Amino acid sequence: MANAVVQLPVEYFPDTNKGRPLWDAKIYIGTIDLDPRIPANQKVVTGRQENGTEVALAQPVRTNSGGVPVDASGNIVTLLVDGAYSMAVDDRQDNQKYYFANVLSGSPLTFEQVSTSDILNAALVTATGTTTPRSLADRSGENKSIIDDGGIDKIYVSTIGSDTNSGLTVGSPVLTLDRAAELFEKYQFKTNSTITIKIAAGTYNEGLAISNVKNRHELVVEGELLAGVPSVIIDGTSATKPMGLNFNSMNNVRVKYIKVQNFGGVGSGIIIQNGTRGVIDTCDSESNAEAGFNCSEDSEMVVIGTCNIIGNDITKFGLRYYRNSGGSVSDNTNPITITGCTSAGLVSRDGSKVVTVNNFNVSNCNLTNTSTGVLAQKDGYIELRTCTITGNSIGAYAENNSIIDTQTGVRNVSGNVRDIVIRDNSSDRSLFTYSALPMQTWVPNSKPSGLIGNSGYDLVVDYDGTTGMQWLVNGNNVNLNFDKKSVISYIGSDYSFRFTVNGTDAIRLIDAPTSNKTSMLLLVNDGAATSLRQVKVGAADSGGSGQRLLTVDN
Fold first, then answer.
1. Distance from C-alpha of 263 to C-alpha of 266, rounded to nearest angstrom
2. For 31-76, what is each residue's pLDDT tens digit?
3. How far apart are CA 38 and CA 30, in angstroms?
4. Which backbone phi and psi does 157 adopt, to 5 degrees?
5. What is the CATH number of domain 14-136?
6. How much is the pTM?
């Protein structure tokens, strides 16, 4: 009598949120209790093909359109590994779908069959690879709250702590941010809840860096407030890390009630990068060299609460969105204030998009004549809603196929040396009115360049990268400048038109000539000196029927 159970010998990975196979998923296999996405933690994985041939597999192992693991040639395989292991499964966009801290090798568990007790037992297997699940009572000598109360939810840091402490209670804080990061990486896969790194008031002369941890739940790094102002100071004056708070290749991060200052070189106060999604809430930055808050490489940064970024003519960028990143600034109520940045208070570039909601303020970015309040460049997009941009060298600047927009709100860009510059196929899509001459049409290949002359030009047109024309309106004067040396000018003080060649007036047309004189002055060289002289009517010619013209004053 047959007694073998017929079952499919390969694993099927479903997308439980969508009720279909998890197509082109990424499967990582590693040492128990460690993140298998990190190459140093990965175990050797073998794939058994349908004909029984075993082949070595590189990680991550991918799935086909049916949600079944395949080798590099697309052959369906059964995954084989030696001993207990951790497993992480991400979809093709690197969003985590499954994580098991400790799976028993050879167990018949499939994702459809895993129960809560199975997961608990698997997670409680000893680090030595024992295949006998332990009860919670067996763990009495270990750090509390790993599984029994839903997971570690807080890690405590204090200037009076010690790195030999557990860090898991307010009475046993660790001393350094480095140790807090180690504890987070140790426990975050063993918890069912958000982990908060609680930092007590004080100054910490170090940075915090967490990288390549695809956390299951949001990481919160939380300081304290004193009278509404952050009382936790992360100071880079003597720090060895280049960044204040650095979150790299993570999932969700939230930073609250912290001031970061004095990180030099390429240092930023807070940086969110490489696919990380972050929220910055009621934080300050001062004198960080590269940027106050920095978001780069396909990341997202939302800035809310009352935040102050003080550049002190040291910080290049107050808020920086770089390389296909995006986010929003302001929670519609509390002010976001940026001052004294050398390059721009807010920059969005390389395909990034950012919306400033309301109560957004940038001022005193004026160290150089190109220091800018808000800057969109290289396919960047900035939507400005209710804001005040004032006291900067340039208020709003768009270049290289970028857009500045206003869909709603009251946009105040005024009191800057130049309120707005639009150049290189860029545009301002709002109904905003500014002081420059209206830009209606351009000759082929020409475009507004935004180049700034010595006196500040209202409109500049480039032709294939060469300055073509510059308009300057100054009181009653209007200048049309062709190459910064040849100029046609109207001068309101004497109602004259002037033609300047190579910096010198060659012709001047004046109002109402007097008797026997014309309205023209010419630049004349009589062999002794060169000067402007008025053209006048000469004596009668020899025939007595007319007068000689083009005589000039001595």
1. 8
2. 998 889 999 999 999 999 988 899 999 999 999 988 999 999 999 9
3. 8
4. -130, 140
5. 2.170.14.10
6. 0.60
